[in-house]
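Hi L., both proteins are below.
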Amino acid sequence: MSNDIEVIIVSVPVEEAHVVILPVPYEGTVSGGGGSSRGPSAILEAMKYQLEDYDRFLDSVTSNDINIISLPPLSVEKLSPEEMVKCVRQKADEILSLNKFLLLLGGEHSISIGAIEAVKNKYGSLTVFQIDAHGDLRDDNSDYVKINPSKYAHCSVMKRAIDMGCKTVQTGIRELYSEEINYIRKNSLRVFQCPLKATEEEIISAVETENVYLTIDVDGFDPSLMPETGTPVAGGLEWYTVLSLLKKLFMARNVVACDITEVSPFFPNNLTAKNAAQLAYTITGYRFKNI
């Protein structure tokens, strides 16, 4: 276990970084358990103090060759959803203009919307590849927020991506609102529900574009792996299933940015933050190592 803050996350100028972590401590549209605004700091703490630098899934020390930096958290806690999305988009634009791999840490899932928009503006044709227990295809959150509902809620992330013109592939899904399943069927969306029946190759082949934005809500995993999240759902994806699928995704497509959301830590040194930190580190390796 590392106790050196400079082992995985280093202090170098952004120009020398390969990966730029953007913490977004926001939970302004939360509908389940709270606490996701504490997620970024918990994940970063785990990356600094709880991870080994050797990644056995890649048989390498990713941090030897790849500079990973973390920016200060965005000051979004008191913003409206619309203001938060704009703030994230502007900062993501800045990072992407430097041709860095953008890795957002949430925070609730709504933080993805601004980043997806920034990536879409830069790359044009784009698929949003989602790991999640939920479809996140509501048009807004008016079914549970009666005063000032928002189209930029955590339950609307994938709907906003589709409205931007993105293709989507969703996997791990196992809880849907009736309007969402109707929308999925009407629009022939590529949704792979749990338990997975499709092969990895079938899921990857559903990704129609070269460029991909990867969005991960940790409730897509089995709750035994990610228990501290706002809206856990029984069942879910297993650890090695996800790592294998993501490895093939990175081999087959150009994953240009990523987020990990909905970590809601209740206790210090918690399992969910530790696993999210390991996931972030492994994803970094997948992005830059010859796999």
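That was the first. Here is the second:
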Amino acid sequence: MQKKQYQLKNKKEKIFFISHDSSQTGAPILLLRLIELLCKYDKYDIELLLVRGGVLENKFRLLLPVTTLKSHIYGKTRNIVRRVFEYLRYRIRLYKVINRTREFDLVFNNTIANGKILRQIKTKGTPVISYIHELDSVINEFNRFGEANRTIQFSDLVVCPSRAVADNLIKKYDLSSEKTDFLPYFISNDRANKISEEEKNTWLNRLGIPSGKFYVGGMGTATYRKGIDLFAEVCRKVVSIDQEICFVWIGDFVDAATKEKMEADANDLFKSNSFFLTGALPMNTANPGFLDIFFLSSREDPYPLVVLEAARMKIPTLYFKNTGGIQEFIEPDAGWGIDSIDTSLAAEKIVALKNNRNEINTRGNLAFLKLCRMHADENRVFSEFDRIVKKMLNNNVN
């Protein structure tokens, strides 16, 4: 296949972004923030393909032209005629989109999930960068039909948010280190600060949570990977020692069955007002603001946005070591690591921290300063993105 020829001088490069969906989850939120940053600098002509629509779709549409292949309810109707119509519309839109990628200098794919589409795009000769955020459990999920392997195969360059993600791809998925690069997440620190006691009580009242306790929070879609069961187990061990400590999970469940099981397992904790599930909340960077500490109970997490959101509010994080890349942010002073997935050790640490407000404040402030340095510097993140684009296009010319 012939490589495209580029005239890089006096030219506004055209970049075609792809997102597997527009749900209120980490990868689409992070892509939204990256696109907001690029729009501010206005150096590129950009468009976006959403494979599936969702709650963030309209936010994307406010920023750039968007094509949506499937609505958020695609495939859910029982009407056969309607299902056939949906599928045919999807195939027509996909055909048009694939052909249009010839008009772009670069495709920037977000996540491991779009391998099938990338395979078709590569036949048009447009270079592809994939921003991969995932570790093994999610990669294996998408590899049931080979999507993850295709994403790696048909990407000219893979950029990662953490060393842990890159090392895992190189070690286990036959990705050359020369084909990897690093791009930090962008997290704005506008209006970032600890909320006041009055604001805290307003939040608690709105969520139906009693005031005057020590609050430990988790956040995200409640799944086994995210350790929602470990979160509840630590809660049970903590409140057997100190009932002034309250655990709150912010976010919805992955499915109804998981929710029903958790509600049944944690019924005694609900009755003691020690454990609360908020469900999905509207996107707001202040959502974790009422917490005293954040507890990342994940068994596996590449580089979780929720920890950065907590740091933005000067809330430090307790986490299990060797579960992903977040220790690259937290260590040595932006939180605390438990050496293994040990709920007893986590419970002991939380009980001890309740009586050490100075340490919490110190590490919370350090987490905020680290966030500002690593993720909130607009010029730094944009410059890294710009460097990666130039690297890819120059390599394609050569």
